[in-house]
Amino acid sequence: MKSAIKVFPIGILGALCLWVPLQERAEEKPRTFSVWATSCSHVPADIARGRESLGDAIRQSEGSNGFDWDVMIDAGLLSASQFPPVDEDGEELQIQYRALTKHRREQVYNVHELR
Length: 115
Fold this sequence. Notes:
There is one protein chain. By secondary structure, the chain is an alpha/beta fold. It has one domain (4-110). The chain has helices at 43-47, 53-62, 87-97; strands at residues 4-10, 13-25, 28-38, 71-74, 108-110. The protein has a five-stranded mixed beta sheet.
């Protein structure tokens, strides 16, 4: 059974797709499960500078020059602040997740370190 890793630079967020065969049969083409791994979109800090870092990356991944993915793992910080997020930060995050057109929000997993 083979697996392959292919790296795609997407916007200001790096992207990594991991293809893992789920099933191999002689008569069937192997199925794959594609994971897009990103980190540190810093949504509130970037929107203050006129950038939709998360929304732009999502639009690029789903666009005509994008790539197929089954789940997105966001393993970094969503805020560049040294303080707890405020309601406006969450509202902006929701706005940028609405850029998803080919995927559901349930396909995005946030796995952040809590300190």
